[in-house]
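Example record

One chain of 342 residues, shown exactly as stored in the release files.
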Amino acid sequence: MNDTIRNTILKGKLIGKYLAKGRPKSIRKEIDSWLEEDPRNRLIFNKLQTEENIAEHLEELEQYDAKIAWKMLVQEALLKQKERMIRSWKVAAVIILLVGLGGTIAQFLFNQNDRGTLSAMNTTVKTERGQTSKVILPDSTVVYLNTSTELVYSNNFLLENRSVTVKGEAYFKVAKDPKHPFLVNCDDVLVKVLGTEFNVRTDREQGLVDVILDHGSVELMHSKSKFQNTHLEPGERALFIENTNQLDIGNVDSYKYTSWKDGVLIFEDESLNEVFKKLENWYDIDIEIRDKRIYNLKFNATILDESLEDLFELMKYTCNIKYQVTYSREPQVSSKVTVWLE
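Predicted structure tokens for this chain:
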């Protein structure tokens, strides 16, 4: 065992002992010294303070090469037959895994379905069509990513500022930190918050940014000063259209727009043109329309875990359309739905 691993094990055991035994003063100085060595250490320590956080991410962490060290530590911990000692070994294992990843906190915070790619400067998380994802940022902010969405943030997140960039649609539950505002960059629109819950959607093809506030407050700004700084209240929606430089604000039923994060799609008197765009992303399908009059039809439904067949059977009776589903046999090729009028 080389000196790096040995020192890591000792440090992990020390932190585990400190957390498991009620933070004894006898080792407080050593812990404080470690916390001051590197700002990332404090981020790690904060995440390790609750058993819930440790348990939540151990399964993801085991996929890395350091899982051998983890198994070795668990075996030794079990021999002690003491619950508190087991927890201290868990902490040691997590520390080893984090060191093995170069101290990168991002992977420690991702769920299994998240797909993060690390560069020298930024972390990027992407979802494809038919996928949604949940990301926990280093400050404990929770971000839900809708289909076909990209989230980018600095690997020095918190050390520089709490700033992210979104392309697509994301729902934020921002951790409160009065000293460090949270910034969401949406093309030329900037959303600034301290601690709140809101939905952001960007569409470059249509040149729009759509912000809906659930709780708290947000401030909207434009990098080219195309509108004045604007505050939103809960239940308000701000829609900015780039081509017209128009910012419209109104009251809405926010859950209609944010229910996707719970796996629910709500359509209320919505044109099939818009419905089909959402369904293509949600189900990862291609929809072929043989009659453009279909786009003008309206659809009302709440969709939860419906199969393609069930969904289009519903449309068949409510919108008077016909359809045919052609399922793909290749994972990289989307299934196809052809739709026409009676």
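Notes: The mean pLDDT is 77.
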